[in-house]
Amino acid sequence: MSAIRPQPSTTNGTTDSLQHAERRTPHPSGAHLPEAPTVSAFDLPVEHPMTPEEVAALLQIDRETVYRMARRRELPAFKISSRWRFLPSQLQRWMEGGLDQRE
User: Fold this and answer.
1) Is 86 domain-assigned?
2) Which residues in the chain land under pLDDT 50?
3) The predicted structure's pLDDT at residue 3
4) What's residue 45's pLDDT?
5) Among 18, 70, 85, 96, which is least packed, fewest CB within 10 Å?
6) What is the distance, to the nearest Å, from the Cα of residue 102 to the centroid of all Cα atoms in its chain?
7) What pLDDT, on a 0 to 100 scale, did the predictor assign at position 86?
8) Domain for residue 103, yes or no?
9) What one-character DSSP code corresponds to residue 50?
């Protein structure tokens, strides 16, 4: 036999717990403001990292030059395990002269 739990009473479509939450955190002006939407990491656009081969084709240089520049921190890069990867947005800023990797 299962017990039936009483449902929270509602007033104008809101539960008591929601009304209680509104009473706990009133806005200083007394006006009720809607909650700001929360943004999770899953809502943000995903930037796909580029491989050294793709960067070499983009910059029209040899792939080994890309590796050498990444090791010397002359290109904005990071490693996933032992593989170099490059974010397009950081490469774009680097090409525009706004990203100095030797800092």
Assistant:
1) yes
2) 16-22
3) 56
4) 83
5) 96
6) 25
7) 98
8) no
9) B
Domain assignment of residue 16, yes or no: no
CA distance 40 to 8: 30
pTM over 0.70: no
Per the structure, the count of domains in the chain is 1
Burial status of residue 55 (CB atoms within 10 A of its CB: 0-12, 13-18, 19 or more) = buried
**Two structure tokens written together for 101:** 């990797």
Q: Residue 2 domain-assigned?
A: no
Which tokens hold the place of 9?
């009473």
> Considering only CA atoms, which of 61, 62, 51 is closest in space to residue 88?
51
Q: Token pair for residue 78?
A: 């990071």
Domain enclosing residue 76, as ranges: 52-95
Tokens matching residue 85? 């990867």
| Residues found in the chain | 103
| Euclidean distance between CA atoms 69 and 82, whole angstroms | 16
